[in-house]
Amino acid sequence: MIRLENLTKAFDTPAGTVIAADRINLDVADGEICVLLGPSGCGKTTTLKMINRLIEPTSGKIYIDGKDTDRQDPVELRRTIGYVIQQIGLFPNMTVEENICVVPKLLGWDLVKARARASELLATINLEPALFLKRYPKELSGGQQQRVGVARALAADPPVLLMDEPFGAIDPINREVIQDEFLKMHHRLKKTVMFVSHDIDEAVKMADKVAIFRAGKLEQFDSPDNILAHPVNDFIADFVGTDRTLKRLRLVKVESALHSAMPRVIPEDDLERATTLMNEHDHEFIVMVDAGGRPQGYVRRDACRGQQGTVGEYGTRLPATVSLDEDLRAAVSKMFMYDVPWLTCVDRDGLFAGVVTQRGITRLLGETYRDPAQRVV
Ligand SMILES: Nc1ncnc2c1ncn2[C@@H]1O[C@H](COP(=O)(O)OP(=O)(O)OP(=O)(O)O)[C@@H](O)[C@H]1O
Ligand SMILES: [Mg+2]
Questions:
Q1: In the chain, which residues have pLDDT < 50?
Q2: What SS3 class is residue 30?
Q3: From the CB of 74, is ligand 1 less than 6 Å away?
Q4: Does the model's pTM come out above 0.85?
């Protein structure tokens, strides 16, 4: 959907030429989110602005949906590309509603449709339409202005969206909420998105592809997991951080690390049965479920030793459970919190699905370092 070929921008300044973008090559497929990362001044904004021709490239090509953008009228082109600029850039003399309706009006939408769209978009970015539609930008906080900027870019439903640090000014809690909303919306609308961020965690969470720049050059363009697991050089490794393997936890669902072939007992079973099952499976514990299959607790092998009675009498409460669709970061966090080496997993209906273990998780993450041909994530 977006293809950059040898895209280059040289700015002439009194002090000499600045190469802001140096032969950038990358491809973003239809419906993908690509995040541009890198230190200040490395050329992210310049690259983004060349795509909608707010900056004319010095050389190289940009294709959108297979079409050479050189052959398109820049004004027409920009109407088909949503753009959130780095400094938000709402029109100060227009209300929130008027700001959002700018492009729809240019495209000739009728007013009722455009206003309905403005309301709908405000609701998606967690701003109550009744409270915000008629306000002016100066009556909003920085983060609220930023969200309106995102809504304005989405207004005319463009297939391509360029965003320059769209969530930068929003506090961490609201940022998570807005990122989640954005991902949900993206899942529904499947736009091709290229956005600039300073935040590797944001990139890992949001991106299908990450492009890391240094001094105008694209250093690595890859999936978030490959960037974290296999940085191509020391610069990328430093940039993503020494905790890069921990960051990968966020990319893997509990389901991927699940041991599903786990035996189980019910409270009425006797200890002998529990011990036999643990012996057969070579486990130190066994999970106890109720008649409906919901986890109730567990018994340890050493608690059964030399005892007579039912599993229910000797069972221990589970400190926590984790759902299959949570990420491994959440699972590991619970393991640390409760100081346990394993956790019971439940499916969407709350039924026992198996366990995840610390060993299983370290093995899963470690596998990619041992043999790149056998990656599991
Ligand atoms: N109009 C211009 N004239 C001259 N140099 C420019 C111009 N615009 C940008 N530059 C230079 O090009 C380089 C890249 O700038 P750019 O705005 O693309 O950086 P960035 O990666 O977006 O940085 P930041 O994270 O700080 O926003 C910088 O060195 C900048 O000073
Ligand atoms: Mg910038």
A1: 377
A2: coil
A3: no
A4: no
